[in-house]
Amino acid sequence: MADYNFLMESRLSPEQFRFVNHVSRIAAHQGLNLYLVGGAVRDLTLGQHRIRDLDLVVEGSLSRIIRQLKSSTPQKPRPGHPQTVEEPPPVDHLEVDERRGVAELSLAGGVRAEIAAARREVYGKPGEPPEIYPADIFEDLRRRDFSVNAMAISLHPNSRGLLLDPTNGIADLERRELRGLHSRTFFEDPSRIYRLLRLKHRLQFQIEERTQRWLDLALQERAWESVEPGEQARELAAILREDDCGRVLRMLKERGLLAGLDRKLSASKIAYDRFDKIRSAARQLPGVDVFLLNLHALLGKLPPAHRNFLAKRVLGSGKTLKFFLHLEAEADRLARALSSPKAAQPSYVYTLLANVPPPLLLFLLVHYPAAKVQTRLKNFLFKFPALRARLPRAELLSLGMEPGPKLESVLERIFLDQLDGKIRTAAQLQKALRDYSGIRPPEPLP
After folding, report:
1. How far apart are CA 138 and CA 380, in angstroms?
2. Which ranges constitute the DSSP H helices of 182-261?
3. Angle, helices 14-30/62-70, rounded to nearest 10 degrees
4. Model confidence at 257: pLDDT above 80
5. What predicted TM-score, i.e. pTM, was given to this entire model?
6. pLDDT tens digits for range 166-179
7. Less Cβ around it within 10 Å: N or C end of the chain?
């Protein structure tokens, strides 16, 4: 049996692990049972190096956790459960769906997470939202789509790392097989059709024989036409976060399934080569989220009104939507500045791009092939960081300068001078260090 405490610590990013620990402390303080569930557990078990999203489930009141997350006060450990108290990770965006009992969060560092109350779902007509009732974790797992997504890891201090697997998803992972949990699964929630095909493509798993029959029947009955609008947006977003989303989109369009997510999108021409360019450029900038660039490529051929409509449906109405709608205009502005005579000075390029969000830098790398733009952008991305890593911090400290804002200011001036070639020799560097710090050399001995 895998050691899930070790897997969480080693496979989750530092930001993800910090968030999981923070919510665990909140739940323990409130006397609630909390679990890591779904795709994160599947990918940890498979040994994946990147965990895409964190799905957490709480037995009991979700609102009690949300209130604490909105607060900036660190949680004190409960008596008998000593834990290190950390500052809570900053929450950039938090949206609560009261009907479903789900909170979606975006955190600093690009971490996406979802916290839900354990629930049981009762479906009426296909594609319509289900009736939702409180449940325990086992009922919550059994109502899910596929056995490999119906596992949970306890995050309670007394049982942390314990795996719950009521549908034997571990065996299906070993067989590399996707198995639905009941015959009505694709009719109750037709978005599961898209999820199954996505996972099959990403994991290179086979579809279990009986599940394939259920899928074929759902496709024959055109169940995909009944996907609920909220699920359409969530599934589009999930497709665009796939590593090879262009291939997934092509497969869905060839099978006539893209219409179940948006009819106008299905009828438009999709420039699949753009997704390949984005993937290629992203290899040069590991860790940069390409989601917004993929969305831009997907919506590129749509009329402006429908493009904005779909962007709002996928992104909501917050800061991310505003950034996306101004992406092209901001990229044009930066490209013009990078092509100007001023940009011949490296320090100008650095000052221009220092606070530009990474997705916008990647957008420039993909869509602006002009030689001046590419050369100056690549200098900023690859050459400047290497020079910055060699800044003479130790020399300043040895001169007697105290750590703090003034020291950082001196280093910044040194860095800009080095970029522009004003400091080339060790003697020039020593002189600049003393001039900018105001520390004079000692008087010579008589």
Report:
1. 51
2. 185-188, 191-203, 209-220, 229-240, 245-254
3. 120
4. yes
5. 0.86
6. 999 999 999 999 99
7. C
